[in-house]
Design a protein that fits this description.
With about 120 residues, the protein is α+β, with helices and mostly antiparallel strands. The protein is built from two helices and six strands. It has one domain: 60s Ribosomal Protein L30, Chain: A (2-Layer Sandwich).
């Protein structure tokens, strides 16, 4: 089966689709001056947009990995997440503290989802 890639750059693609599974690159906030709530909202907006482009949505997420630069932001991230996540089919999720590529980034989210059929 063919692999489709979207928003291909020199280093990475934003989306890869194979066998009706959507793989998103880790999403970060473009406006890193925001607090954890603002960065989380922006990242989740990127995920919504990319999933829609790949014929999927947040109710089809198979797995989510959340990387926080500091676990002190866990509660603030969860406040935004809980308002966003699909009611009922909440996906499996892991939240990990990790140094991110830029010190001003507070959060990065990686998602795998199923396409709509």
């Amino acid at each position: 089966m063919e692999i489709q890639r979207f928003h291909i750059g020199k280093r990475m693609s934003e989306i890869a689709i194979h066998n009706h599974t959507v793989y998103l690159a880790g999403q970060i906030a473009e406006d890193a001056t925001q607090d954890i709530a603002g960065q989380t909202r922006e990242v989740l907006g990127h995920i919504d947009r990319l999933l829609a482009e790949a014929d999927s949505d947040k109710s089809r997420i198979l797995m989510c990995q959340i990387f926080l630069s500091d676990m002190k932001n866990f509660a603030g991230m969860n406040l935004v997440w809980d308002q966003w996540v699909a009611v009922g089919p909440a996906p499996p999720r892991a939240t990990i503290q990790a140094p991110l590529a830029q010190p001003e980034w507070l959060i990065e989210i990686l998602v795998t989802a199923a396409q709509n059929q």
